[in-house]
Each structure stands twice: as structure tokens, then as C-alpha cells.
Amino acid sequence: MTEELELTLFQIITAAGGSKSNYIGAIQVAKEGKFDEAEQLIKDGDEFLAQAHDPHAKLLAQEAQLAVEGKNSADLVCLLLIHAEDQMMSCEVFKQMAVEFIELYKKLA
Questions:
Q1: What domains are there in the chain, each with its CATH number?
Q2: Which one in 19, 26, 46, 65 has a CA-CA gap of 20 to 30 Å to 90?
């Protein structure tokens, strides 16, 4: 694995972690009835998730280009990449849960 790939993967993991933290925070403040703050945390989480998606999309494009050229893309597949993608997927699940919890807390309020 190249240093550039490793840095890209850590960028994805870091951004996904920030996203997940914001979504969890949104649930916590919604529980306290702070719905405007919860909505802002969802937006902030979305911004972090976008920061994760951009380098991920570049990796996918790079792999597709290697396939077109008939080259082996095995260098791109590693445990760190799998972890980065797992973090992104869990963020998307957390966002859905956060949105649902916020709506529930709004109804209860």
C-alpha cells in the first residue's frame, strides 16, 4: 500500500468518525428538546460524510481506470479500505437512526 493510499483511507475514516459523532450528538440534544441544535448537528454530520465520500469516489474511479487498462487493482484492496468503507456505511445508518429519533422526540414533545 502506498503512503498516499494510506493517507486517503485515514481521511475517509476520520471524516466518517466526525460524521457519526455529530449524528449521535443530534440524538442526544433532541432528547433534551433542542431540535434546532439537533438539525444543525445532522447538517454538520452530512458535511463530514461528504468529506468522506469525495476521496472514496476517487478511489473507485482509480480502480475502474485500472480495470479499463487491464491492470490489477489488488493494491487498492486492503483491510484499511474495508474498515474505511465500513465506517462510511455505519455513518449512513446512524444518520437514518438520528433522523428517526429526532422525529420521535419532536412528537413526544
A1: 3-104 (1.20.58.80)
A2: 65
